[in-house]
Each structure stands twice: as structure tokens, then as C-alpha cells.
């Protein structure tokens, strides 16, 4: 049962082969057994989970169950959830119990999904390795010496280790796709504005987007049906008709035009990862896809542009953590400024401080035009690159990261090396496009590698169709680590 | 040396929306601390601002009234600074693209009309309040005011005296209350003025270095603060010193300004467009709609009062001091057909009584129809001015109409020639000495005799007729 997909679990629940309480109990047992070595969860609350599960069972008994009622889920610790500690991986919010629910949480609760716990993450979603969590690094279930990726490392590790069938996650510069790739699970980051950011602790508001991870593309589609949709509490939420993201899963891929950006297969891409992507493309060709070469000439510029814009927004977004109303406050201080300085110095980790300082610098008088304005111009060029590329293809394929998961501690002393590994994911966020990571093989040292599928705006159903068809002829997504 | 004072004003106009600019929390004044702070004002993790559309309509209203440009795309920006009553650590304001630019407002100083240019008006949220009393060395934070919508209206440095600055502030105050976008309550902080003051030798083209006097919440303080500040700057320069750019506070108790922070301490606010809010787009239709919902403006009404009712430009300016007064005047003047008389009464007796009772035009116990009834009785000679005042007071106290009071108290002016002649004869017979004096050339005696006649008539005789008949009889 632990290896079942969300789709299968929902069928078992509907057939009364299992109750929500039984399912939750089984997953909680597995979390108890494996979380000590993986550290995928920050908070597990057995009583709360069982209460939710019992409510789901009651709903089903009353004939009011939806498709997913009673199925378990892990939530990234970035989504505010009433009554649960919402730490965002930070000491700053270690004492913060949210008094309200994020839109994503509300939607999951309305669907009857049962919260298994709160998934670990890089502090305030800043990181590519999950080593920046106040609660310690998450381990990659495929290799405990490897990073799981970040920032949604806890969500990815939980799904990979079958501690949860699905998990919510967020992606600001690759934080869904990169850990999904490194842990061998399927993850989707929707078009910016498809999933409400209300209640999602902000890192970089113009780039942050909620999404999900699961074993399969089909499960991702089911979950996207739950969490997507207009929310008037988020001014950047898009007012569009509700859509069924599963609608095109079964479509054949004959005639699909697949774009391969030449810049994604150039210097810097590890040979084994390149081979895996080539093989995946061959599989799609067998399914009838045509391959065309496309160009995204400003890809290299995505790194400096992202690392100006995201820290700039973060520097303001994180100002509210001042120790005045909630969160960490230094125990001793001599005046107001001292309280701010000590509380923030103690409450934030080093990567968060680094980005706040970078962001403060690039917005400063005299530097704003040279950095922030210029980065915004690059952002437009990058979006234009994609527009041109999509004129000749339906989806763009490529690697998610230049290498498979690196070792814990390998890059943590060198932030620039860490930032460079985001090269294939950042452009998508800067352009606001949807993208996925789909398991596509294993590296020479046995670590999972994902295939990135990038869609045009609102082409989630098309991407899911490609991923689902790929998963009909491959079994990388159903492989689980031995634990 | 002769000095010229240069003043520009920044006015924070609190908009009278029901809910806050970025949340559904109430804006009502005076609630228990922090009871009107929603998740958004508390700046909990993950909350987002959503623009209250009523704020945009009100800003457009002011923009149109100032004959300004409405920027159909305008942008909210974050102004970053740390303070406990600013929960997000930034204020959502507008910087590069405000909603209103290039407006103008005419002011009247003495008899002279002058145009003050309005640089811009932008939408922003108010901060909360820090309470330093009552907490024994600690500071309390009340976030009820946080998120209250403001329009910051910035003028060009076009004013040259404290009087002009006050006239501008008053004209803007009249305008925003007239438009119904602000309650105008200065004690509660609904209309707060910052004054940028500098001085320069007469004839010099360049401006002097300015100091900004913050948070003046009455017209009197505004005048006092500018006068003190300008004098201080002049003395500083004449004593060989230099004015340094600074922000200062006015102390109403001492009447002095004192330094709050120098230019060196000025914040770098690191403005950038707020990524949580899309640029505000205003359609042509929205502007047309807002314009159609606007009342006639004071300037237009003033011109119309002069043309239609024959009142003086000065009186028209006073009568358009508030929408309530202007509306009342127009109703009385139209119903009575007595524009000038209505103006005299409103500016004279009515204003005096309101003033004495500390009331506002809106609280007048005599409605326009009844006041017009009184004026008609003055115009048709039924009431002398003196009797009219008596009737007016009785109307105020009883709520009855003029005609009812005239009938009840028998206050009708006596204009019957026979009756007056009879009274005159009696008075002349009873006062031979006065008659003799008048005939001897003492003109004043006539007034004494007339007074006797009025007294005999209990004030009801038509004074003009009394004079006329007396003169005939004594001729």
C-alpha cells in the first residue's frame, strides 16, 4: 500500500478496501521509522493527523467524499496551516503557530486530504540542497550522503521514500523541479498565477509559485485540480475558468514538436545526465514526437538576473520578521535597533542573511538602475527567448540540473557554485512559465536524474500529457529506494 | 536685507473608505487598540495586499477636481524602513508612477487670486501608532490605523507666505471634504500637513535650503510653524550661519520648531515596484463614470453664485466654504428669490448663531424653506430687520415657521399710514421740548422722536414710514 500512487489510493478508499485512518496510521508508522535518518519532516503530529483522517472517513460514510477524500499528503513547511507550526525552515519562525490557512491548504482540506506532517525545506526557500534548514539537512533517500535538492527537499524525499504519496511544494528558481529530479519523483511548477500565493510565506513574490510532487504525472494532474484556481486574496492570481488538468493525459504524442534548446546541452552538462536526457528524447520520438532544435540565447544571464531580483524582493519580504509581533525575539537588547539587529542576527541563517544583504545592496540609491532595472530588462529578454522558441515547438525538453545530486557539504561552502547549478531552472521562473521534472534514469553513481519539460503559458495539461505518455513506456517513476 | 519665504506643502489626506486600502478591516476611528488589525495589517507570514477599488475612485475624484493628469497606469512601490508601527517593514506607496500628476488649485489671499501647482497625489497606506505612555518604559503598538488609505498631495513650492500656505491648505481641505473623499477631521489626523520652508533674498532665482516641518494638524499650527521657521532661518543666515537640510517638528506649547533628523540621517528607502500588486490600470470609462458622479465644484459654484444671485465674489467664496453651506444658500436664495439678502443673513446672523452654539451648517435647526420664508417677509416689508432677528431667534428655538411666529406674537410691521400718524401725533404732543429743539435745527431730536414712536408701536411700526411722517408733520 505504501508504494501505491495517489490514484490507486483514492480507488482503494472509494472501494472501502482501506479507511483514511488506516492509511494515515500506516504512513505515520513509516515516518516514525524512517524520518530519523531522512529528516524529511519538521513537524509530525499524530493526533492532528488521525483527527483529520477520522473526519475524512466520516465524510465518506456520509456520502460526501470527493475523489481524494482520505488520501494522505505532506505539506511543505512554507504553507501557513492553522494550528500547525509553520516554520519555513527557520529559527525565526520556530515558535510560530499559524492562526490561518493558506489557499493551498484550504483547497486540500476541502478535498479531504489528510495532513501527514510538515515537510522540511531550505530556510525561507533559499537554497538548492536543503542544507540551509534550521532543522538540519534532509538526506536523499537514494543515497544518504547525497543532498535531496532544494528548497523543497523534504517534500521530494518524503515522496521518494514513500513517507507520503504526494506533497505540496514551491518553486522560485527550481525548488520543485530540482529536488524532484534529485530524488526521482515527478514534480510540477504551474504557470505563475495559477496557484494562489495567499498564505505561502513569500521569498520572491514575482517568482514564487506553488505546485506538487508525486510518483506520477497522473497524480500531479489530480493534485493540480485541487490546488489551482483563482483566489481574490492574491492580486497576482489569474482569473481563468477552472480546468481539468487530467483531460489530455491519454492523448497520443504523434506530431508533438519537442524543442531542444542548444544552450541546455552545451558545456557544463555532465555526460551521464546528457545521456539520460538523450535516451528520454528517443523514447518520445518512438511515441511519434518530432525533435526540433531551438535557442534560448540569454540562458546564461538568468543566473545574475535571478540573483538580483529574488534577493531584492526577499530583502523587503523578510523585513516583517522583526521580533515585534511574532517569531524570534532576542532575549536581551538595549534599545529598539538593538532588538531588531539581535533578533534578526539570531533568527536568520547565513544564506538568508546573504540574500537580504545582496537584495538591500541592489536596491540602494545609486545602484538600483545598474542592478535591479537591468535585471528586469534581462527578464524580458528571457521571456522573449521562450516566446520565439515556442513559435516552433509545443514543449521544450532538457535537463533539470547539470549533474545528479551532489554530496552533502560538497558545495555548501561556495554559494556561487551552488547558484550556478540552477542554470536550467531559473529562466522558467523569470518568464513565469510552467515546467515539470519527470524521472528519466540514474547517474553513473546511481542517483536519480529527471527530465525537464517546459510548457508554454497555461500548457500544464499538455506537459502532463507528455509526462504521462512517457511514464506509460518507462518505469523510472515507479522505482523506489531501498530503505 | 529683504527676504522671501518659499513654501511647498505635502498633505496627507485620509480617505473615508469603509475598509482599509489593502484589506477588508474597518477604518473606523477610536476602536479598542488592535481590534481593527486583520492578518494583513499584522503582516503575518504569507498574507498579501489586495487593493480596495474605492480608493482609486476617490483619488481620481481629487485628480479631476485639481484639473490634473490621471495616470491610467500607475504603480505601487515598497518604501522600506524599520519601525514597530510599520509591521511589514515597508510601506506600500507610489513613487515613480503616482495616480495623479500636474494639477492646480486656486486660492484667495485677501482679494487676490493665485494658482498653486499640485505636483502629484499618490495613494499609500497609513502606519499604525506607537504609544509611549502608560507602558512603564515599554512602547505599545496600536495597528488600528495601519492600512488606512491616504492620498499624499504634494504641491510645488509656489507659496510665499504663511497666509498663502494656510489659504492653500484650507482650499484643499474644503475640496476634499466637498468631494466627499475625506471627513476633514484634523484632530483625528484625517488631514495632516508637512511644510517645506526655505528663505532667499528677494530677487534671487535659486531656492534656499529647505527644512521640512512635519505633521501639523491645525491651520493655526501651520501658520505659527511657518512663521517661526522662516524667521529662524532668516536669523540663522543673518547671523552668518547656514541652513542645513533637515526634518523638524513643531512644538505647539513653545511655538518653536526643533530638529528631528538631519539630511545625513535620511533613510535610503530603496523604493521598488511592489511585486504583490499589479500596476493599477484605469480605463477611460472609469474616469467618465467618476466624473459623472462628482458634485459641482466650489470654483464653478462660486462663479455661478455671482452671476445668478448677484452676490459679491468675496461672499461667494465664503458661501462655497463647504458643500453644506453652499447647498443651503442656493436653496434659500432660489426659494426666496433674495440672493443678496440670503447671503447677508447666512454670513451674518446665521453664522453668528451657529458660531455661538458651536454648531455646523449641517446641524441648523431651521431648514432652507423656513429661512426663505423669513426672508420673504423681510422683502415684502412685513418685518423690519429688527423684528426679523427676533423672529429668527424664535424660529431657531421653536422650529416654527416665520409666518406662524409673526401671527402668534403679533410681530407684523405696522405700515398703515393712519395708525402711524396717530402715534406720531401723540408723541409730538407729549414731547414739545424735542419738537422745539428740532425746529431750532437740532437734527438729532428727530431720531429721539422716531424712537419714541417705535417704542409706542412696540417696535412694529415701519421705521421708514415713521421717519417720513415725522418729517411731514414737523415741516
From TrEMBL, chain A:
Provide the E.C. number(s) assigned to this enzyme: 6.3.5.7
* Residues the record marks as active site: 76, 151, 175
Please report the stretch or stretches of sequence annotated as the Amidase domain.
Answer: 22-464
Q: Which reaction does it catalyse?
A: L-glutamyl-tRNA(Gln) + L-glutamine + ATP + H2O = L-glutaminyl-tRNA(Gln) + L-glutamate + ADP + phosphate + H(+)
Descriptive protein name: Glutamyl-tRNA(Gln) amidotransferase subunit A
Q: The organism's lineage?
A: Bacteria, Pseudomonadati, Pseudomonadota, Betaproteobacteria, Neisseriales
Specify the superkingdom: Bacteria
- Give the quaternary structure: Heterotrimer of A, B and C subunits.
Annotated InterPro entries = Amidase, Amidase_CS, Amidase_dom, AS_sf, GatA
Q: Does the keyword Protein biosynthesis apply?
A: yes
Keyword list, A-Z: ATP-binding, Ligase, Nucleotide-binding, Protein biosynthesis
Would the keyword Kinase turn up in this protein's UniProt record?
Answer: no
HAMAP family assigned to the protein according to its UniProt record, in alphabetical order: GatA (MF_00120)
Q: What class of enzyme is it?
A: ligase
**Organism from which the protein derives:** Vogesella margarita
Would you identify the family this protein belongs to, as annotated? Belongs to the amidase family. GatA subfamily.
Biological function: Allows the formation of correctly charged Gln-tRNA(Gln) through the transamidation of misacylated Glu-tRNA(Gln) in organisms which lack glutaminyl-tRNA synthetase. The reaction takes place in the presence of glutamine and ATP through an activated gamma-phospho-Glu-tRNA(Gln).
Automatic annotation (TrEMBL), chain B:
Q: What reactions does this protein catalyze?
A: L-aspartyl-tRNA(Asn) + L-glutamine + ATP + H2O = L-asparaginyl-tRNA(Asn) + L-glutamate + ADP + phosphate + 2 H(+); L-glutamyl-tRNA(Gln) + L-glutamine + ATP + H2O = L-glutaminyl-tRNA(Gln) + L-glutamate + ADP + phosphate + H(+)
List, alphabetically, the PROSITE patterns matched. GATB (PS01234)
Q: What's the superkingdom here?
A: Bacteria
Write down the Pfam families for this protein, in alphabetical order: GatB_N, GatB_Yqey
Q: What is its EC number?
A: 6.3.5.-
Q: Which residues form a coiled coil?
A: none
Domain Asn/Gln amidotransferase residue range list: 327-474
* Record keywords, A-Z: ATP-binding, Ligase, Nucleotide-binding, Protein biosynthesis
Family, as annotated: Belongs to the GatB/GatE family. GatB subfamily.
Oligomeric state and interaction partners are given as: Heterotrimer of A, B and C subunits.
Q: What does this protein do?
A: Allows the formation of correctly charged Asn-tRNA(Asn) or Gln-tRNA(Gln) through the transamidation of misacylated Asp-tRNA(Asn) or Glu-tRNA(Gln) in organisms which lack either or both of asparaginyl-tRNA or glutaminyl-tRNA synthetases. The reaction takes place in the presence of glutamine and ATP through an activated phospho-Asp-tRNA(Asn) or phospho-Glu-tRNA(Gln).
- Protein name stated in the entry: Aspartyl/glutamyl-tRNA(Asn/Gln) amidotransferase subunit B
Please give the organism: Vogesella margarita
Gene symbol of the encoding locus: gatB
Amino acid at each position: 500500500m505504501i508504494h501505491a500512487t495517489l490514484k490507486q489510493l483514492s480507488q482503494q478508499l472509494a472501494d472501502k478496501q482501506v479507511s483514511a485512518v488506516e492509511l494515515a496510521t500506516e504512513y505515520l508508522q513509516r515516518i516514525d521509522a524512517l524520518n530519523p535518518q531522512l529528516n524529511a519532516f519538521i513537524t509530525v503530529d499524530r493526533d492532528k493527523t488521525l483527527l483529520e483522517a477520522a473526519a475524512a472517513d466520516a465524510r465518506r460514510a456520509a456520502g460526501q467524499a470527493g475523489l481524494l477524500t482520505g488520501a494522505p499528503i505532506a505539506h511543505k513547511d512554507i504553507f501557513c496551516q492553522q494550528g500547525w507550526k509553520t516554520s519555513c525552515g527557520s529559527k525565526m519562525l520556530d515558535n510560530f503557530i499559524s492562526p490561518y490557512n493558506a489557499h493551498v491548504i484550504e483547497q486540500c482540506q476541502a478535498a479531504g486530504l489528510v495532513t501527514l506532517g510538515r515537510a522540511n525545506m531550505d530556510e525561507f526557500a533559499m537554497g538548492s540542497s536543503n542544507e540551509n534548514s534550521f532543522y538540519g539537512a534532509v538526506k536523499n533517500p537514494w543515497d544518504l550522503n547525497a543532498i535531496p535538492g532544494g528548497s523543497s527537499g523534504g517534500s521530494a524525499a518524503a515522496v521518494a521514500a514513500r513517507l507520503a504519496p504526494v506533497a505540496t511544494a514551491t518553486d522560485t528558481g527550481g525548488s520543485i523541479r530540482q529536488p524532484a529530479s534529485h530524488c526521482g519523483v515527478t514534480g510540477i511548477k504551474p504557470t505563475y498565477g495559477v496557484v494562489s500565493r495567499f498564505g505561502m510565506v513569500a521569498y520572491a513574490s514575482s517568482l514564487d509559485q506553488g505546485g506538487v510532487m508525486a510518483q506520477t504525472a497522473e497524480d500531479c494532474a489530480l493534485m493540480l485540480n485541487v490546488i489551482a484556481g483563482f483566489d481574490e486574496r492574491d492580486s497576482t492570481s489569474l482569473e481563468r475558468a477552472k480546468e481539468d488538468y487530467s483531460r489530455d493525459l491519454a492523448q497520443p504524442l504523434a506530431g508533438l514538436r519537442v524543442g531542444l534548446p542548444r544552450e541546455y546541452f552545451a558545456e557544463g552538462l555532465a555526460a551521464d545526465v546528457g545521456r539520460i536526457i538523450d535516451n528520454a528524447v528517443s523514447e518520445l520520438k518512438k511515441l511519434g514526437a518530432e525533435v526540433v532544435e531551438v535557442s534560448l540565447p540569454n540562458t546564461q544571464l538568468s543566473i545574475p538576473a535571478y540573483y538580483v531580483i529574488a534577493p531584492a524582493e526577499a530583502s523587503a519580504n523578510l523585513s516583517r520578521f522583526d521580533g515585534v509581533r511574532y517569531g524570534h525575539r532576542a532575549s536581551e537588547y538595549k534599545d529598539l535597533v538593538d532588538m531588531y539587529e539581535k533578533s534578526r542576527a539570531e533568527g536568520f541563517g547565513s544564506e538568508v542573511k546573504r540574500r537580504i544583504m545582496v537584495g538591500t545592496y541592489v536596491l540602494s540609491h545609486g545602484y538600483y538602475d545598474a542592478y535591479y532595472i537591468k535585471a528586469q530588462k534581462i527578464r524580458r529578454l528571457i521571456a522573449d527567448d521562450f516566446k520565439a522558441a515556442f513559435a516552433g515547438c509545443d514543449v521544450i525538453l532538457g535537463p533539470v540540473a547539470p549533474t545528479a545530486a551532489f554530496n552533502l557539504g560538497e558545495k555548501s561552502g561556495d554559494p556561487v557554485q551552488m547558484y550556478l547549478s540552477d542554470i536550467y531552472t531559473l529562466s522558467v521562473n523569470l518568464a513565469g512559465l510552467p515546467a515539470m521534472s519527470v524521472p528519466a534514469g540514474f547517474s553513473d553513481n546511481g542517483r536519480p536524474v529527471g527530465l525537464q519539460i517546459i510548457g508554454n503559458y497555461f500548457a500544464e495539461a499538455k506537459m502532463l500529457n507528455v509526462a504521462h505518455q512517457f511514464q506509460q513506456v518507462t518505469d523510472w517513476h515507479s522505482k523506489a529506494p531501498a530503505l | 536685507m529683504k527676504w522671501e519665504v518659499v513654501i511647498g506643502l505635502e498633505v496627507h489626506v485620509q480617505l473615508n473608505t469603509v475598509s482599509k486600502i489593502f484589506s477588508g478591516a474597518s477604518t473606523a476611528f477610536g476602536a479598542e487598540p488592535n481590534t481593527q488589525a486583520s492578518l494583513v495589517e499584522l503582516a503575518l507570514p504569507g498574507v498579501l495586499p489586495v487593493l480596495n477599488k474605492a480608493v482609486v475612485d476617490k483619488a481620481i475624484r481629487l485628480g479631476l477636481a485639481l484639473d490634473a493628469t490621471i495616470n491610467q497606469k500607475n504603480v505601487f512601490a515598497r518604501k522600506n524602513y524599520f519601525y514597530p508601527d510599520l509591521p511589514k517593514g515597508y510601506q506600500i506607496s507610489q513613487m515613480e508612477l503616482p495616480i495623479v500628476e500636474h494639477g492646480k488649485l486656486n486660492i484667495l489671499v485677501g482679494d487676490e487670486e493665485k494658482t498653486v501647482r499640485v505636483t502629484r497625489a499618490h495613494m499609500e497606506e497609513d502606519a499604525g501608532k506607537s504609544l509611549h505612555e502608560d507602558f512603564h518604559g515599554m512602547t505599545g503598538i496600536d495597528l488600528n490605523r495601519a492600512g488606512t488609505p491616504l492620498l499624499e498631495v504634494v504641491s510645488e513650492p509656489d507659496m510665499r507666505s504663511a497666509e498663502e500656505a494656510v489659504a492653500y491648505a484650507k482650499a484643499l481641505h474644503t475640496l476634499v471634504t466637498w468631494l466627499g473623499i475625506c471627513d476633514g477631521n484634523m484632530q483625528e489626523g484625517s488631514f495632516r500637513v508637512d511644510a517645506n520652508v526655505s528663505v532667499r533674498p528677494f530677487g534671487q532665482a535659486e531656492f534656499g535650503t529647505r527644512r521640512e516641518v512635519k505633521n501639523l494638524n491645525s491651520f493655526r499650527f501651520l501658520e505659527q510653524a511657518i512663521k517661526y521657521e522662516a524667521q529662524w532661518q532668516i536669523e540663522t543666515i543673518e547671523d552668518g550661519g547656514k541652513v542645513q537640510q533637515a526634518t523638524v517638528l513643531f512644538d505647539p506649547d513653545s511655538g518653536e520648531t526643533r530638529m528631528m533628523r538631519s539630511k545625513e540621517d535620511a533613510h535610503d528607502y530603496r523604493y521598488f515596484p511592489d511585486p504583490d500588486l499589479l500596476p493599477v490600470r484605469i480605463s477611460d470609462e472609469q474616469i467618465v463614470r467618476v466624473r459623472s458622479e462628482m458634485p459641482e465644484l466650489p470654483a464653478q459654484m462660486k462663479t455661478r453664485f455671482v452671476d445668478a444671485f448677484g452676490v459679491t465674489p468675496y461672499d461667494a467664496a465664503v458661501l462655497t466654504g463647504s458643500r453644506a453651506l453652499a447647498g443651503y444658500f442656493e436653496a434659500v436664495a432660489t426659494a426666496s428669490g433674495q440672493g443678496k439678502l440670503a447671503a447677508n443673513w447666512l454670513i451674518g446672523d446665521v453664522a453668528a448663531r451657529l458660531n455661538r452654539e458651536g454648531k455646523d451648517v449641517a446641524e441648523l435647526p431651521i431648514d432652507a424653506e423656513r429661512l426663505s420664508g423669513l426672508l420673504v417677509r423681510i422683502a415684502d416689508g412685513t418685518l423690519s430687520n429688527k423684528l426679523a432677528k427676533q423672529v429668527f431667534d424664535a424660529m431657531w428655538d421653536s422650529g416654527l415657521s416665520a409666518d406662524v411666529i409673526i401671527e402668534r406674537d403679533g410681530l407684523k410691521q405696522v405700515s398703515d399710514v393712519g395708525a402711524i400718524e396717530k402715534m406720531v401725533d401723540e408723541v409730538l404732543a407729549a414731547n414739545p421740548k424735542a419738537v422745539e429743539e428740532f425746529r431750532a435745527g437740532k437734527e438729532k431730536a428727530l431720531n429721539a422722536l422716531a424712537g419714541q414712536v417705535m417704542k409706542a408701536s412696540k417696535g412694529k411700526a415701519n421705521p421708514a414710514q415713521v421717519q417720513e411722517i415725522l418729517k411731514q408733520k414737523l415741516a
